[in-house]
């Protein structure tokens, strides 16, 4: 995500300084024309607007409040665009601890996969202080397809949980449809082309369908191992609200099965492989020729 953000911002003319714990990522940023800092504090010392995209609570604690973290050098009035998917309580903790230092945090989770981020095909659900949002709006629009200002801090995360609930269900429903078609003898490339153009399609069908057609789940656009964290967050959010989520609950075991089968580093589309095994089907090579465009003379 961070690499995609940086590339798009650089293409829009922003001066970008970044940090990643992976030296290879820092080298990639320099190759794109950005500046690579050696710590998160090295970024916050230079930038009035920061973007954080972090995979875990441990990474958040280190990047914000650990040695060499953002809080060490960020000036008062710095705005942080926090795009990570985290429990709501953690989002509020980040905001409160940063507020003590005069740093303003916006809750701005991303709707979309890493592949979508690379294509600038993501939506941002921004929430928090309106004046800080106005300051950060140009940057937000610099790496996304669309940005929504969603009101009070935390609304962005709540909307992301709702979006991910649907992603969890629609990803599995896409796999279910693929395996049903496979079991019936349909060609998967034909199935994808036809269903994508009809009422049964969904954004997940469009995005993850091709992975399921090919049966190839690496490199991942969202690793099952990482997405397990997102599933846990949605589950706790719904439980805290005493809100029934029956389709989401029915979906969870299939992601757990994919993880148990050693697919932790594969894309979440690999739930298709779980259903294939359950259905006892073997893949056939495509017999449907790809559509070719006619040449004009």
What topology does this entry show?
Blueprint: H1 2-11, E1 17-18, H2 23-32, E2 35-36, H3 40-44, E3 49-52, H4 57-65, H5 70-73, E4 79-82, H6 88-99, E5 104-107, E6 110-111, H7 114-118, E7 123-126, H8 130-141, E8 146-149, H9 155-183, H10 188-196, H11 203-214, H12 224-240, H13 246-260, H14 271-279
Parallel strand pairs: 1-2, 3-4, 4-5, 7-8
Antiparallel strand pairs: 6-7
Helix pairs in contact: 1-2, 9-11, 9-12, 9-13, 9-14, 10-11, 12-13, 13-14
Number of strands: 8
SSE pattern: HEHEHEHHEHEEHEHEHHHHHH
Largest sheet: 3 strands, parallel
In percent, how helical is the residue content? 40-55%
What number of structural domains do the residues give? 2
Proportion of residues in extended strands:
5-15%
Mean pLDDT: 94
CATH topology of the largest domain: Rossmann fold
Tally the helices.
14
Radius of gyration: 21 Å
Order of strands side by side in the largest beta sheet? 3-4-5
Low-confidence stretches are 291-297
Shape, per Cα inertia axes: globular
Query: Mind telling me the CATH superfamily name of the largest domain?
Result: NAD(P)-binding Rossmann-like Domain
Task: Quickly give the CATH architecture of the largest domain.
Answer: 3-Layer(aba) Sandwich
The oligomeric state is single chain
End-to-end CA span: 43 Å
Alpha-beta classification: mainly alpha
CATH class category name of the largest domain: Alpha Beta
What key phrases describe this protein's structure?
single chain, N-(1-d-carboxylethyl)-l-norvaline Dehydrogenase, domain 2, 14 helices, three-stranded mixed beta sheet, Rossmann fold, 8 strands, mainly alpha, 297 residues, globular, 2 domains, disordered C terminus
């Amino acid at each position: 995500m961070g690499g995609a953000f940086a590339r798009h911002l650089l293409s829009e003319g922003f001066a970008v300084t970044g940090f990643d714990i992976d030296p290879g990522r820092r080298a990639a940023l320099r190759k794109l024309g950005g500046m690579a800092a050696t710590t998160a504090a090295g970024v916050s010392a230079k930038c009035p607007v920061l973007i954080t995209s972090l995979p875990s609570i441990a990474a958040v604690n280190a990047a914000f409040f650990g040695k060499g973290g953002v809080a060490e050098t960020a000036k008062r009035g710095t705005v942080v665009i926090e795009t990570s998917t985290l429990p709501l309580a953690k989002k509020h903790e980040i905001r409160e601890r940063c507020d003590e230092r005069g740093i303003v945090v916006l809750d701005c989770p991303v709707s979309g996969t890493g592949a979508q981020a690379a294509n600038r095909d993501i939506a941002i659900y921004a929430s928090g202080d309106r004046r800080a949002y106005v300051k950060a709006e140009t940057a937000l629009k610099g790496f996304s397809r669309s940005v929504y200002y969603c009101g009070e801090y935390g609304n962005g995360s709540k909307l992301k949980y709702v979006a991910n609930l649907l992603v969890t269900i629609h990803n599995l429903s896409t796999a279910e449809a693929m395996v049903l078609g496979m079991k019936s003898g349909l060609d998967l490339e034909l199935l994808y082309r036809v269903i994508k153009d009809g009422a049964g399609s969904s954004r997940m069908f469009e995005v993850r369908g091709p992975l399921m057609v090919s049966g190839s789940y690496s490199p991942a656009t969202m690793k099952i191992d990482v997405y397990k964290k997102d599933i846990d967050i949605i589950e706790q959010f719904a439980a805290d609200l005493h809100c029934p989520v029956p389709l989401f609950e029915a979906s969870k075991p299939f992601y757990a099965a994919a993880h148990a089968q050693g697919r932790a580093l594969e894309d979440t589309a690999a739930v298709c492989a779980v259903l294939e095994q359950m259905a006892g089907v073997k893949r056939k090579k495509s017999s449907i020729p790809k559509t070719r465009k006619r040449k004009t003379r």
